[in-house]
Amino acid sequence: MRCDVAFDIPVPINDLFTMSKKGRKLRLFKGTRYYNGKHQRQEDGHCRVYDKKRQLMENGRQGIKGEQTRIEIVYAPKGKLTLASLVQFPPQFNSKYLCAVLTDLSKFTPKVGRLVQEIQQGELLPQDTTPYYRKKIQEQLKTQDVIDLNEVTAEQWQEAVTLPCAILSGKVSFLPVQESRSG
């Protein structure tokens, strides 16, 4: 089983900082941030971050109001999952990625703030910083608006997976309500 879990964050891509916690290398291509190699795009944890508004406009589709950045993370668990496990236990991504809306760069120490800006502008890749500074970036990002990917996933999982699986397995059925007429 494999699926892409997508999050739409209503901020410009330049305000959304993402970083792998598992050492996945960042690649930049045409404004999209990819974590892992191109040949690994079907693997668990592969991540894409891009400007969704720009993508829709480039494809001639109706634009959206306001800014929107999309994060897509591949969920491909090892081994078999029962339907009950799939429904009850949405994927956990906080252990794989850190995601934060940059709200106040003055809360970073000067060196870490400069590194964050260089990463955001594509001038520096996280893997080109030392492990010490990657750790400092993660620590200081907590001063920003951190997005709980596990929580966002759980919210979407209910509608996208839990309900359809419950219907397919016969646990829930949506039948039209019968009207009763009197007289």
TrEMBL record:
Species this chain originates from: Paenibacillus harenae
Instruction: Please give the superkingdom of this protein's source.
Output: Bacteria
Q: What is this protein called?
A: Uncharacterized protein
